[in-house]
Amino acid sequence: MRIWVDADACPKVIKEILFRAAQRQQIELVLVANHHFPTPTSVFIRAVRVEGGFDVADRYIAEHVSAGDLVVTADIPLAAMVIEKDALALNPRGELYTANDIQQRLSIRNFMEEVRSTGQNIGGPPALSQTDRREFANHLDRILARRRNLNAKDA
User: Fold this and answer.
1) CA within 13 Å, CB half, 47
2) Strand stretches in 23-155, DSSP E
3) Alpha carbon distance 43, 152 (integer Å)
4) Collapsed DSSP state (helix, strand, coil) of residue 92
5) What angle do helix axes 76-84 and 56-64 make, rounded to 10 degrees?
6) Per DSSP, which regions of 36-146 are E strands?
7) Are 78 and 71 spatial neighbours (Cβ–Cβ below 8 Å)?
8) pLDDT tens column, 24-81
9) Cβ(63)–Cβ(12) under 8 Å?
10) 58 or 148, greater pLDDT
11) CA angle centred on 45, ends 16 and 17, rounded to 5°
């Protein structure tokens, strides 16, 4: 398993949780963005800088993700592509996207995009709360624990 991060929009506090988890679990963490940002020095953590442009980081992740990987993203179209490849998609608020709900989420996202295109200001998501951070960390821990259990059974 590898953890991929859509790092352009990922909150710093979520990246920090991921940095600690990668070190603790000794799992590869790949952050993909179109700009430079600091990362800890670690054999488990690497940053990939892609060219600027619409959805370039998303396309990079979608092309490189493998079944069983985890992708951290708030981008619903990227989450849909990831799920199609039998990988997991977790948003920074700790919600796991699933094959059962991704089409509904895509429909809602597309509707909201249409509303915004008419000039209506419907606002964005609320700021990341302590509860969101805790939910993300807890869900990440459950995913990594499941991975450890599967690896232990295979050994």
Assistant:
1) 14
2) 28-33, 45-49, 70-72, 88-90, 96-97
3) 23
4) coil
5) 10
6) 45-49, 70-72, 88-90, 96-97
7) yes
8) 999 999 999 999 989 999 999 999 999 988 889 999 999 999 999 999 999 989 999 9
9) no
10) 58
11) 20
Separation between Cα atoms, residue 75 and residue 147, nearest integer Å: 24
The full length of the chain comes to: 155
Is the predicted pLDDT of residue 110 greater than 60, yes or no?
Answer: no
Q: How far is CA 49 from the centre of its chain?
A: 16
* pTM of structure: 0.85
Instruction: Say yes or no to pLDDT of 118 above 80.
Output: no
Work out whether the CA dihedral 59, 24, 99, 8 comes out positive or negative.
negative
Place of tokens 């209506």: 120
Using CB atoms within 10 A of its CB, is residue 140 exposed (0-12), middle (13-18) or buried (19+)? buried
